[in-house]
Amino acid sequence: MRHISAKLNIYARRVGNPSIVGNDIERIVLRFVLWSFAVLGILYIVLLGNMVRNIVERRTLETNARTLESEVGNLELTYLSMSNNVDLPFSYSLGFKETKATFTTRKALGYIPEGSVKLAQNNI
Known about the structure:
Layout: H1 2-16, H2 23-83, H3 88-93, H4 114-123
């Protein structure tokens, strides 16, 4: 029993002695944990701020899109009302003229001897 008691006393003195089981490790771990929390807290605030800024910007862009959409609708309405007034006398007053349509024809790509053309015309 004395042997166990002596070992416990030796162990207790070693544990109580800061030079053997130093508090430096505990301080380093505590500082690491606190700095980690600080860095994560700052990162959280930055990310949250970016999200809020993006949400506000998206709402502003949606408002601008609605304004532009209504403006386009008004322009379409103006176009439709003006297109109903366009007719032939109005176009003449603006200087437009009616043209006679001319169409092009494709000539034969192959060689046709002169005699066969006369034969073909005589058969028609």
